[in-house]
Each structure stands twice: as structure tokens, then as C-alpha cells.
Amino acid sequence: MTKQELVNFINKQRDKIGIFHIALNERFEGQFTLGYYYDEKSKQYMVYEINERQDIWIRDKFINENDAIERLFLLIKSTFWIK
Predict the structure, then answer these.
(1) Per the confidence metrics, is the pTM higher than 0.85?
(2) Alpha helices in the chain (DSSP H)
(3) What average pLDDT score do residues 67-77 get?
(4) Rounded to an integer, what distance in angstroms lies between the CA atom of residue 80 and that of residue 44?
(5) Per-residue pLDDT at 30
(6) CA-to-CA distance for 56 and 34, rounded, in angstroms?
(7) Which residues lie closer than 8 Å to 20 by C-beta, 6 or more apart?
(8) pLDDT computed for residue 83 by the predictor
(9) CA dist., res. 81 & res. 26, Å (int)
């Protein structure tokens, strides 16, 4: 999956995603966020989630951006029960 395909999917499912912010290739530290970003220190892409208390959880780490995009796609599908 490409980043553009993920953007198209997010736009199509916006009603199910609701107030959640989806951050693509950036570390956004606001509440209710799912996303991924490139960590310069570890040289890896981090797929993360931030809850209502602004606690951050790193869900996975990848060397390849496409793998991070695919993992974020699956995380969005499972979080919002999208088939």
C-alpha cells in the first residue's frame, strides 16, 4: 500500500474514524492520534497511538516506510472495526 492509497482509505472512512487524528510521517502529540513517523535516533519508522490522556504507545518499528504504512492501515482497520 502506498501513502496515497492510505490517504484515500482514510478519507473514505472518515465517518467511522471520527475525531481521531491520523498522522502520516509526523509525530503529532495530540489526543486520539494514530500515526507513524521516522525516528532519526533509531533510524526506524515508528507506528504509534496516543490516547485521551496523551500517553504514547509505540505499536511497531520498521526500517521500511511501506511496512509502517501497511501496519498503520491494519491498526486503523482493527481500531475502528472496518472490514
Answers:
(1) yes
(2) 3-12, 14-17, 65-79
(3) 97
(4) 26
(5) 92
(6) 10
(7) 32, 33, 34, 79, 80
(8) 83
(9) 24
- 26 pLDDT above the threshold of 90: yes
User: How far is CA 41 from its chain centroid?
Assistant: 19
Who contacts 10 (Cβ-Cβ below 8 Å, separation ≥6)?
17, 22, 76
Question: Percent of the chain having pLDDT more than 70?
Answer: 100
Q: At residue 52, what are phi and psi to the nearest 5 degrees?
A: -65, -20
Write down the residue that cell numbers 475525531 correspond to.
19
- Residue 45 has a pLDDT of 98
CB count within 10 Å of CB 66 equals 12
Give the three cell numbers for residue 28. Answer: 503529532
